[in-house]
Each structure stands twice: as C-alpha cells, then as structure tokens.
Write a structure and sequence with these properties.
This protein has 266 residues and is of the alpha/beta class. The protein contains nine helices and eleven strands. It has one domain: 3-Layer(aba) Sandwich (Rossmann fold). The strands form two sheets. Strands 6-5-4-7-8-11-10 form a seven-stranded mixed sheet, with helices on both faces. The N and C termini lie far apart (43 Å).
Length: 266
C-alpha cells in the first residue's frame, strides 16, 4: 500500500517521496517537498512505558545533562524574560532543576510514571498526563526536548503549544537531525532508523528547513537555530566553548540533534 504522508495534508506537499531507509521490512520515507522523514504509517509498533531500568543511562549522564541544560538556558534567557515555563516530557528533571534555580516558575507534564515520581522526589512540579491536556494561553515559555520525533502527528502538538503560549511566548525544541551524516550514510543501519532499535519508536525526523517550515506554518517566528557562539548576558567561558563546539559540529554536519528557538507571533 502506498503511504500517504501527513505533510501532504498539513503542509500541502505534493505527495512525492523517496524510500529513505529500509530495515527488516521497516521503511522510512522522505518527503521530496518538505524534507520530513516519516516512519511507514502502515507499519505496526508499540511504545511501552519505560521501566526503571531503561532510565539507567539517563541517571549515569544526569550531571552532563544538567550542564547541557544550563548552556541551553543561556540561549533562552538571552531572548526571553523569565516567567511561567512548561516542559513537556521532562525526563528526570535535568532541565527543570536549573531553570527553577534561575527563577523560572516551572511545571512539567510527562507520560511515564517512574520519571514523574523521580521529578517529584526532586521537589519539581511535574504531573502525569499527555500534551493534549495542556491548558491554553497559560505559559510564557514551553520546552520540548526529544519529544516531537515520537509523535504520529507533530503538527497537532505544535498547534497545541502555540495555543498554550501567551502572546509572543517562546518555544524551545530539540529533536533528532535528519541531516546528521550517519543517518545519511547508514540509513537503515543507523540506530534511530533501525527496526530493532530506534526505529521501533521514532515516527518523524526533522531537519532545520522542515522544522522551520512547520513552525512558521503554525504561527511562529524563528529566533535562533543551532547554538550561537555568544549570548547576551552569559559570560561563562566554559559555556561559550561548548557553544563554539556545537556550532562547529553544525558546520561540518556532525550535529546529532537540531535546536530551534521560536516565538509566537504577537
């Protein structure tokens, strides 16, 4: 059965695509119009709630993630005033902890029982729920890191985020990079597209042009793509070095994930 990719309906793409990768019968299709890479919509899969054991990797890298979150907060705070922040899918709280420490009023919503309990133990305001339950017009800023790639309909999520933000509110998105050199070289052997690994759960993979198009179509202006080398108000030389490294990775196609900061149109 020839698949109909969701971007045909939502972005008015022409329906042309290529088989981007194939792994043990699981195909990913790349839209020729917008560049989005879609998991075969006819392929069955089930994403189970993560167990405590599956978070062991997160725990081992927790302090490294805290550091990375602080670098990312510098970028946000250079462009937006502190206010009420929601993180969708906060994992173990590595972003909310430094945000709360810097004076943001933080909330989180997650679908995994264990992750939610771990956040509560850290005295974070995180509740179990789905993104459909988010209230409208309540937030100054929304964070989504590695959430979009797991959604069968990322357009609805971004529309909901738009409606949930105050006028000129901001959104910070981190997600897999479809232009990462290993994805282009290895295709079905790359873990994110492999049927026995990430392909079991990754539904859609963006690159910068496709995410930019989706956000602008939903009513956002792009503020920042990738890491700026310098940020207003941040004088931490270690953070500056980190951003320089990330910028270099972007320039030579070693960037595993894309980072986009956008603002709701007033």
């Amino acid at each position: 059965m020839q698949p109909k990719l969701l971007c045909q309906e939502r972005l008015n793409c022409n329906g042309d695509y290529i088989i981007y990768s194939s792994s043990e019968g699981l195909n990913y299709y790349k839209c020729s119009s917008c560049g989005l890479i879609w998991r075969d919509p006819n392929a069955p899969f089930a994403v189970k709630e993560k167990s405590q054991t599956s978070f062991n990797g997160y725990k081992k890298r927790f302090f490294a993630r805290l550091y990375k979150s602080r670098v990312q907060l510098d970028i946000i705070e250079a462009n937006f005033k502190k206010g009420k922040m929601l993180e969708i899918g906060p994992r173990l709280g590595d972003f909310m902890i430094p945000a709360k420490g810097r004076g943001w009023i933080t909330e989180g919503i997650g679908s995994d029982d264990y992750a939610v309990e771990q956040c509560k133990e850290k005295k974070l305001n995180v509740n179990k729920g789905s993104w459909e339950e988010i209230k409208n017009n309540g937030y100054d800023f929304i964070v989504m890191r590695h959430v979009l790639q797991y959604l069968s309909n990322p357009f609805d999520m971004i529309d909901k985020v738009h409606d949930s933000l105050k006028s000129k509110g901001g959104v910070f998105i981190v997600t897999r990079n479809g232009d990462y050199y290993k994805a282009n070289w290895l295709r079905g052997k790359y873990h994110a597209l492999n049927a026995k690994k990430g392909g079991r759960k990754n539904v859609v993979i963006f690159n910068y042009p496709s995410l930019r198009k989706v956000l602008e179509n939903a009513g956002f202006n792009i503020v920042q793509e990738n890491y700026p080398i310098f940020t207003k108000g941040s004088n931490n030389p270690v953070h500056t070095l980190e951003r320089l490294i990330r910028k270099a990775e972007h320039c030579i196609n070693l960037e595993k994930e894309i980072l986009v900061l956008a603002q709701k149109k007033g």
